[in-house]
């Protein structure tokens, strides 16, 4: 089995910063693309940022220039550095990863973390 565990969420004032982490563990053979999504109350889940295993990145227009996605392949960990946070960034943030696991055979599928709450408020 594979698990994704997020951490780093919390309450921050507008203009502040947070760093989210997502650690993947289990019978992992390889991790392909990884990404951060968020879902605000009453809204659909949306892509925030994504990164390939080669390091290519893409961002939602709403976070460009403020958020930075990165990964440590040796640690199977994904990060999201969030600066200049705004109240509209308030949401539950989810980690997603395209993982090939090995348990007698190779199985490739997408996994989700449990989510971490980010609240931006004064």
Summed over residues and divided by their number, the pLDDT gives a mean of 96
Helix and strand element order: EEEEEEEEEEE
Gross morphology is elongated
Number of helices: 0
Quaternary form: single chain
Main sheet: strands, sense, barrel: 7 strands, mixed
From the helix content, strand content and strand pairing, which structural class follows? mainly beta
Characterise this structure.
The protein is mainly β and 122 residues long. It is 0% helix and 61% strand. It has strands spanning 2-7, 10-12, 18-26, 28-39, 46-51, 57-59, 67-72, 77-82, 91-102, 106-112, 116-120. The strands form 2 sheets. Strands 2, 4, 5, 6, 9, 10 and 11 form a 7-stranded mixed sheet that branches.
